[in-house]
Amino acid sequence: MSAKPRHPLAPARATRIIILAVIGALFAVPIASMVEFTLRDPQTGGHTLNNWASLFAPDAASTYEVVWTGIGNSLLLSAFAVAVVLLILVPTMVYVEVEFPRLSRVLEFICLIPLSLPAIVLVVGYVPVYQFIGRTVGTDVWSLGFAYGIIVLPFAHRALKSNLDAIGIRVLSEAGRTLGDSWFGFLWRVAVPNLRSGISAAVLITVAVVFGEFTLASLLNRTNLQTALNIINWQNPFVSVAISLVSLIAVFLLLLAVSGLGRVGVRRTRRPATPTPVSPTPLRGTR
Amino acid sequence: MTSLVTPPGTGSSGTRRSGTRGTARSRSRIALTAGRGVGLLPFTLYVLLFLAVPTVIALVSGFQDADGGWTLDNLSALGDPLILRTIGSSLWLAALTSLLGAIIGALVCFAMMGLDETRLLSRVVTSISSVLAQFGGVMLAFAFIATIGIQGAITVFLRGELGIDIYQDGVWLYELPGLILPYLYFQVPLMIIVFLPAMKTLRVQWAEANLTLGGTRLTFWTRIGLPLLFPSFVGSFLLLFTNGFSAYSTAAALINQASPIVPLQIRLALSSETVLGRENVAGVLALAMMVIMAVAMALYALVQRRAARWRI
């Protein structure tokens, strides 16, 4: 620290610490309150671990059935959305980059559209679409995966794009073709292995987005984790807070993993280390 | 916007590119391009069916009556005082939380200036911010019910220890004012994520030049720093605004009895589709939201161009 001259713009150490500590403490309050809430003993007014124990009690499974259904459905839907990303988005992005590089901006634009269309607006258009699907295919939960594949496009595209830009896919493609590889052979043997970090990041962010999705599921009358939590909150607020806390920690770890992967991707890019411009498309959550 | 959602040129743009001369060679290239375009079909079809079609439906359903005929009657909903008040509340909520979020977030960014990106503190702050900017919806609502709900930890603490009843004028958590704190909980972290890179564009040399020319820390900020950061700040504010304006789940989980903001009015309209005279009101509200979003995005693009001027 002392070896480097002090950054002329850096605030005084005390200022920095005070600002970060005060705002950090304020942001810790709701998390701490959730923990406290789950430890309350309704009988004595004291604190106990009983609430947590009852989550794993033998009769709990049937009490919280809707939550288990929700988790199962969210898993199914994230698998569906991941399939859309892997089977449709990844091949298309590689294909456009190799065959139609000029269309790469168009593709990016299309993939970013769901960011500027609020889910609550999109759902107005989905209602008739899903009424039609309900009449023809059925009202099973999996069909919601088609819509989820759309709302994850911006996130998945961004994760894949930085990786694609970094590996020089066109040169790889020419090399592969020169050596007689077919298109699918190239995709499977050359593109996919080189895109591993981008694909993992895209898959993780897709799962995170699907598990947090509430708007479409609730207004299209399907059950997923979030709608189940919302329902069970009316019966037993402790359970919903406890499960929220657990899944918040899970999402926290998942997103930490994503940001870790993102860092790896950044390090690999060949772009000069200029400051990143204000991102035009921040990761918008699922609220 | 929807016109741009049309297929990413299933070969058509390639045809235009190579079809300038009618020679046999270019004709075979057309065939080749068209053949290559087939690879774009799955994505194009998928996006058409599940993005373009719903968007068009959301856009036009406001102009349709219950039988699918064209009408402008639904637009009269926009003259309804209740709807107007709801739109006003939505704009107010989004503007307030993004202004406060932008100021608090910028303060955190300021506190982090000059911190090495590899330092643990810096990594922790950015990681937590990216997690909390994603944290929204039902679970965020629960967090605040556990905090400042009627039995929330802070409510109980203030009532028991300090004798302060935050709800002596009624429980405001489940009404419009109750959305402010939860919204700030995702707006501030979002501001940190989008504004931190802009802060990094302030170059050390500028600070040094300012000092060499006899300026002080204060003159650096008033003459150089703040004017340069202002466009980025406004741009970030607009992003936060669109974010707050379009948020639905947090409000939906907190507020069940009323519909004080536009997204909740859409919920009401969708769930009471059969109420006479309210058919397709959801479409009108969706249209209004899209227009407001488009204005905010256009302003953002404008500001962004100005902010880019000082980037290397």
UniProtKB/TrEMBL annotation, chain A:
KW Cell membrane (keyword) present: yes
Coiled coil: none
UniProt KW keywords: Cell inner membrane, Cell membrane, Membrane, Transmembrane, Transmembrane helix, Transport
Domain of life: Bacteria
Membrane topology category: Multi-pass membrane protein
All residue ranges annotated as the ABC transmembrane type-1 domain in the record: 71-258
Transmembrane segment boundaries: 14-35, 75-94, 106-129, 141-160, 199-220, 240-261
GO cellular component, one term: plasma membrane
Gene3D superfamilies according to UniProt: MetI-like
Stored InterPro entries: MetI-like, MetI-like_sf
Main location: membrane
Gene Ontology annotations of biological process type: transmembrane transport
Entry's localization field: Cell inner membrane; Cell membrane
Keyword Lipid biosynthesis belongs to the record: no
Entry-linked PANTHER family: INNER MEMBRANE ABC TRANSPORTER PERMEASE PROTEIN YDCV (PTHR43357)
Family: Belongs to the binding-protein-dependent transport system permease family.
Protein name: ABC transporter permease subunit
Organism: Mycetocola tolaasinivorans
Lineage start: Bacteria, Bacillati, Actinomycetota, Actinomycetes, Micrococcales
